[in-house]
Automatic annotation (TrEMBL):
Residues 21-37 form the Prokaryotic-type class I peptide chain release factors domain. One of its GO terms (molecular function) is peptidyl-tRNA hydrolase activity. This is Ribosome-associated protein. Residues 103-140 are annotated as: Disordered. Signal peptide: none annotated. It comes from the Bacteria. InterPro entries: Pep_chain_release_fac_I.
Length: 140
């Protein structure tokens, strides 16, 4: 069971792990061991996720999320499989924890008079600068 928070835990049956050969340091041994981990979690069909969390996870523009709604996390940071496995699980939990909190709604505010005046003064200054770059006007 992967414990995400006090209120949410994912059963092992919803996680799919695949082990593959990792690139990077390890010498000749790296060619024989499958130390990298690919962790898959079906966000779209998971019965454990609350609907609001599922919607927030699927709405993310994340390249690790497939078109079918499966989240794929690859862990190959460490040289041994157990540490990569823990790393992948912790990264999945962190991603779901981030989606647990509802984003604070933005409150629309009006710009202050001083900020509007600063903006207009800046535009006028920029206009004068560009005007000075033009050729002088002569009578012909």
């Amino acid at each position: 069971m992967l414990i995400v928070s006090r209120t949410l835990a994912l059963p092992e049956t919803e996680l799919t792990e695949r082990f593959l050969r990792a690139d990077g340091p390890g010498g000749q041994h790296v060619n024989r061991t499958e130390s990298a981990v690919e962790l898959r979690f079906d966000v779209a069909r998971s019965p454990s996720l609350p609907e609001a969390v599922r919607a927030r996870l699927l709405a993310r523009r994340d390249r690790r999320l497939t078109d079918e709604g499966v989240l794929v996390i690859q862990a190959r940071r460490f040289r041994d499989q157990a540490r990569n496995r823990e790393d992948a699980r912790e990264r999945l939990a962190e991603l779901i924890r981030a989606a647990l909190a509802a984003p604070k709604p933005r409150v629309a505010t009006r710009p202050t008079r001083a900020s509007q005046e600063r903006r207009l003064a800046g535009k006028q200054q920029r206009g004068r600068l560009k005007q000075n770059r033009s050729r002088p006007w002569t009578h012909e």
